[in-house]
Amino acid sequence: MYRVTYEQGNGYHCSCCRNTYTGTEDFDTEKDVIDYLVDKLHAKKNPSKHGDEDDWDLEEVREIKDEDLTDKFYELANEIALNKNTIKARKLKLEQIKNKLTEDEKC
Known about the structure:
Radius of gyration: 15 Å
Distance between the termini: 21 Å
Structural class: alpha+beta
Number of helices: 3
Strand order of the largest sheet: 2-1-3
Strand content: 15-25%
Number of domains: 1
Largest sheet: 3 strands, antiparallel
């Protein structure tokens, strides 16, 4: 099982109105994690009428079994958290990691 930890804001960026909270989502498979991250990055790039869906930042991706960041997701979490490239570049990176994970499973 995998846990995605994120920070969600309310869409305001001034100090008097700004509110954020940390949330988590749990997933059974690596594919579910990648699909979720791609969807969130798409929402961040294409904000909805609610205005706060794009106010989302990834904190970490953790494999729950041992509460340590796994090697296969450590790079992914850092890349998404720090990289300010376009959604297309991020999606390509996620696809590359997904393909690598699929190849690793075959071994």
